[in-house]
Amino acid sequence: MVKTAPSIITKVSTMAREIKDIKEFVELARRADIKSATVKVNKKLNANGKKFRQTKFKVRGSRYQYTLIVNDAAKAKKLQQSLPPTLEIKNL
């Protein structure tokens, strides 16, 4: 009976990673492997029933998609302006 080594299967995860810190997200957006960004604005209701805008920023890396969710419209506008000009930005 001949024993063989078990085959090792590696799987590359393509799951999304949520980033909570704006500075960390901007640093990620400046990496060389980040080529495109998507900005999506959702209209939501808070606990009091008041409408607000939730903005999702997504950048695609070679391994993961990184997402940042911003609930403040002013911060979202500043963040969109601070994204590198080399990125291809899609607004949804």
UniProtKB/TrEMBL annotation:
Q: Gene3D superfamilies per the record? A: 3.30.720.90
Q: Does the keyword Ribonucleoprotein apply?
A: yes
State the InterPro entries in the record: Ribosomal_eL38, Ribosomal_eL38_sf
In terms of superkingdom, the source organism counts as: Eukaryota
Q: Does the keyword Ribosomal protein apply?
A: yes
Any GO CC annotation of this UniProt entry: cytosolic large ribosomal subunit
Q: What GO molecular function terms would the record report? A: structural constituent of ribosome
Write the record's keywords in alphabetical order, separated by commas. Ribonucleoprotein, Ribosomal protein
One GO term under biological process is: translation
PANTHER family, A to Z: 60S RIBOSOMAL PROTEIN L38, LARGE RIBOSOMAL SUBUNIT PROTEIN EL38
Q: Which family does it belong to?
A: Belongs to the eukaryotic ribosomal protein eL38 family.
Its protein name is: Large ribosomal subunit protein eL38
Q: Which organism is it from?
A: Meyerozyma guilliermondii (strain ATCC 6260 / CBS 566 / DSM 6381 / JCM 1539 / NBRC 10279 / NRRL Y-324)
